[in-house]
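hey m, so remember when u said the tokens were messed up on ur end? i reran from scratch. heres the input so u can diff it against urs
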Amino acid sequence: MSHELTTGPLWTGDYYNEGSGKEGLDKLKEECGVFGVFKHPDAASLSYYGLHALQHRGEESAGMCVSDGNEFHYHRGMGLVKEVFTKDLMQTLTGDISIGHVRYSTSGDSKLTNAQPLVFKYRDGDLAVATNGNIVNAPTIRRELEQGGSIFQTTSDTEVIAHLIARSPKGLVEAAKDAFQRIVGGYAFLIMTNDKLLVASDPHGLRPLTMGKLGDAYLFASETCALETIGAELIRDIEPGELLVLDADGLHEDRFDHHKHRKALCAMEYIYFARPDSDMNGANQHAARKRMGSRMAIESFVDADLVTGVPDSSISAAIGYAEQTGIPYELGMIKNKYTGRTFIQPSQELREQGVKMKLSAVRRVVEGKRVVMIDDSIVRGTTSRRIVNMLRDAGATEVHVRITSPPFKNPCFYGIDTPDSRELIASQLSVEEICREINADSLSFLSPDGLITSIQGDNQDDYKGGLCLACFDNDYPTRLDFGGEEKFGCSC
């Protein structure tokens, strides 16, 4: 097999190694993260730390809205949580009810007007909305609302839910139920008024949402790591189709959907998105990823000198592979966490010397060794090829790639930023062809059954282990009603 080093520009956007556009580095983008607090005097500070713990889910913008019972105090900005919220600003966000949001721009435009929470005035006072996910039929509903006189202020699909609520003659809770029954997709919603907080999960539970308590206060977060950060007790996951209403009388458990739907939590949460210290449906992410690596070793063993994982999401799986095989796990690659974005683009000479801002191979570890490289997924294949060639350039004699998910063949319509199928390498090439394309000595993917068993164990009462595997098997849990406007990613 020929092992020629593939060269080319290290960036395609306005910034060197930006990695944030669809033509940038081909790793999937986390969706968004939401965090809510009900009845805690320090709601803003709790939200700040909660959003900070969810920063990995969205690094483009952050926002927070706090109610003191009479009026909203809110702020949104582009950038990281620590950049958007200064100490002086935090002192202005007074109140005991709060919702917050961190966002990646995927479906909606990248601009401040789309940063969440979105805040509105309507007949019953103030309304703030934050969501993680995608409303598949939003284009159809939006056109209908515009024809009826609605004026949209953003390109975010989240605004659709606010218009549906505002136009309803019913009270807030019943109007929200009607709105949720109209929309199709994967979503986790936090909706706040001056004195109420509504919490909802889509009928299939595609997007994660958990509830915790801190003293008498209720808290809600996309991942349990955010609850752990502030010392809250985890109560439970929000159930698919559930609508919680929190007001002066406390917590009211209700539903907006009483039909029996298949449970379908996004499998990529386990494979890649969620933090290793988060739990979902009772399964810890680090432990699940270790089991994926172990199962990968059983399904596709290869003799080698060391195992290494692509940081950070594949380290747990690499440890599992190493433990199962007895091949030593080594830190063969290092991720630079402080790359940021820079306008200074490398000269041709520096490019030829291999400027590596985001990821570097540890030459003294991989030189002269047969390496098993564990990664979580292959999207376009360009990043995998760069990493394989980087390991070869550092002296690895063989590079065997093991992917702890099935081949990613289909776009996601529920909140993950993915290309269409024409740009997904696994939908165009066979495994053998992908292996040649990424310049690996061998390539294997985890089987669907292996993935499900690694996550859910042998107790699989739900269809496909209660997971959405549509990006692998084309079996979408909802109808796909785009109204002629098909789009991918997180519409929040």
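this time it looks ok to me. The chain has two domains: 32-261, 270-473. if urs says something different then somethings off w ur setup not the seq
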